[in-house]
Amino acid sequence: MRIGAVVSRKDDFNSSMDKDDVLNKILMLLVKALYEQVEVIVFPGLLGCFFKSDREYVESILRLSIDFKSLIICPGSYFETLNGKKYHSSCIIQNGRILLRQRQIYLSKWEKDEGFSRGEDAAFVNIHGFKTSLLISTDLFYPQVSRYIAMSGADLVLSPAAIREQKYCFNISPLWENVQQNLFFGVESGFKGSYKNMNFNSLSIIHAPLEMTERENGILEIERNNDCNLIVANLDNEKRKNAIKKFDVLSKLNIKLYEDMLK
Amino acid sequence: MEAGIGNFLEMFFKIKLSGKKIDKHLIKINYYKKIDKKKDIAAVACVQRSIKKVKSVEEYIDILHRFVKEAKEAGCDFIVFPEYNFLDLYGIIPFSDKIRTLFSKNTTNENSKCEAQTFDKEMYHPNLEKTAENKELSPSKGEDKTIFNILYAISFPIQSALEHIMCSLSAKYDIYIYTGTYLLREEGKLYNCGSLISRDGKILGRQKKLHLTDFEEDMNLSRGDKLNYFDTDIGRIACPICMDATYFETFKIARNLGCDIVALPIANNEEYNFYRALRGIWPRVQESYVYGLKSSLNGNIAGIKFTGKSGIFAPAPLTEKGDGIVNISKNYEGDSLIIGCIDIKRLKAQRLEAEYYGDVNENFERDYYLKTYKGSEKNEK
C-alpha cells in the first residue's frame, strides 16, 4: 500500500488564514497525492482548529473526498464538541463517508488546562487488508495505548501529531518508540506553528520495524529541508511480517507480570 | 558419567572460587572511611568492560576491584556491573579451549535483535526439557549434556563467589553495588539474575530476568515473575535485565513501585547498531521519567562478540543537551567507567512540570489487562 504524510512547514497553516485558503492547500495536497498514486494520506494534527467548528471542517473534507473516491484521508486532528464536552479527535474518511472516528485517550498538561475530556477506547478499520488505527498526538506518549492497538492486531497506525516544542533527539519521535516496541507501521504528519500562543513542532515521518528498513533505523521516509510537502512510502505488509519473525517482541511478553500494572 | 562430571566441576569450582581464597585476596584492600550520605544529588557509575578469560579467582577479583575503586575515587554512591558478569570465569574450566573446539560445531551465529540477546552459546544446551521441580536436569544429547552440566554445576559456586566478592567490596568501599548477572540455581531451574548490595556489604535482594531472549528460552532458562524494588539512600531502585527494557511494562511497573532509578545490565552479542541500541533503555526512560543506568559487557568469548555502550540516561529536559543522555561511553567496545550525577529532587519536580507525562484515564485503564493481554496468553512462551 502506498501511503503519504503531509509535511507542514512553520506556519503553513495558521489562524490568520481564511478557511478557503486552508481548503485550497488541502485540495492541492490531495491532487498531489493522487498524482503520486498514494492510497492513504495523513494530514497534520490541529489542522481542523483553523475552522469555526469541527463540524465545518469535517464536512468540508467529506465534500472534497467525493472528488477523490479512491483516496483514504486522515484529515489531521480537530477539537470535537459534544454534549458540553470537548475532545481532541480525528477520523478516517473515504468518498464522502467517515470510516472511523477516534478521540484522544490521554491529555497533555495544556489540554487538561483547557478542560478537554478523554476518549475511552481505540477503534479500528480495515484499509486494503491493513488493520488500521489512529494514535492522536498526546497518546503517542502513553505506550499502553499503542500496546493495546498492537495486541488487537493492528498493522498500521496513522498519527496526526501536534507536539508542543518537541525537540527531536536523533530524529526519533515518540511514534518511533511505539513502532519499535510493537512492530506495526506508523505514519505521522506533524504540525509546525502556533496555536493559541503555544508553539508546536512535530515532524512528518513514515516508520517501520527497523529490521525491514534499508538503514536499519526504523524510518522508511522522513521530511527533509526542502520544499517537498508530501513524503511517500510503500508499505509492504509481508516484508513487515518477515521482519517480525526476526525480532518478535510481542511473543516474549510476560503477561502475568502485568496483571496489576494499571490498577 | 554426566552426573560425575557435574559433581566434579561443582567441587572444582567450589575449591577454585572458595570464600577463603577470596577473603585472602580481598584482605589486602583497605577500608574507606564512611561519610554522611544524605544528599539530593548522587554520583553513579556504569561499568563497560571486556570479557577477559581468567585463570584464577584472584585475577577476576582484580578486574572487578579496579572498577569499584575508580568509582569510589570519583565519589560515586552506586556502581552497576553488566549482564553475564561471570563469563571471565569460563577460563577456570580445565581444558576450556578443548571444550570449545569440541562443541564449536553446535554454535550458530544467531543475531540478537534487542537491548539484549546473549551469550556464550557453547556453554548451553539448546533442547533441554523443562524440569520444574527436578533438580537432576537431563538433556538428551551426550555432548550437549556435558555442556549443560558444566553450566548447571558451576552456577552456584559462581553466584556464591560473585556475591561474596561484591559484598566485601561494597563494605570496604562504602558503595552500593549491582553485581551484574549470574545464573541462579533455584528448585531445579536456572535464572539469569543479579543482586543489589548495600553500602555495608549486605545483599538487599535479587532480581531475575523477566523477559527472555530466544536463545535463553532455547537454553531452557526460566524467567522471573516479579519486579522487585530496593530502597537505598540515593533513591528507590529497580534492576531489570537487558531484554526487560524492550518492554514499557517493566518501567511502568517500576514507576508504580515508586522507583526513581532503573539499573540495567546488558550483554549484546551482535555488531553495534545505534538504532537497535536505542530501542532499549533510552525510550523507556523518556516514557517513564526515571534515571536509567546501563552497564554493558563487551569483548569476545568462544567466538561470540559482544558490543554495547554503557550510559546514564535521564528524561530529556533534565539533560544538558536535551537529548536524554547524562553521559555515555564513546566506544561500543573496550573498558570504561561512565560516571554521572543524578538529582532525584529535580527529577520529581520535572515530573510535575512535564507536558506529556502522568495523565490517568480510568475508563480506558479499567479493563486494560483483560482487553489487551487476554487471548494472547496462549501464545505466550
Automatic annotation (TrEMBL), chain A:
The keyword Acyltransferase does not apply. The keyword Hydrolase applies. Residues 1-237 form the CN hydrolase domain. It comes from the Bacteria. Pfam families: CN_hydrolase. InterPro entries: C-N_Hydrolase, C-N_Hydrolase_sf. Keywords: Hydrolase. One of its GO terms (molecular function) is hydrolase activity. This is Carbon-nitrogen hydrolase. It comes from Caloramator quimbayensis. The lineage of its organism: Bacteria, Bacillati, Bacillota, Clostridia, Eubacteriales.
TrEMBL record, chain B:
One of its GO terms (molecular function) is hydrolase activity, acting on carbon-nitrogen (but not peptide) bonds, in linear amides. The keyword Disulfide bond does not apply. InterPro entries: Aliph_Amidase/BUP, C-N_Hydrolase, C-N_Hydrolase_sf. PROSITE patterns: CN_HYDROLASE. SUPFAM superfamilies: Carbon-nitrogen hydrolase. Residues 42-344 form the CN hydrolase domain. Keywords: Hydrolase. This is Predicted amidohydrolase. The lineage of its organism: Bacteria, Bacillati, Bacillota, Clostridia, Eubacteriales. PANTHER family: BETA-UREIDOPROPIONASE, NITRILASE C965.09-RELATED.
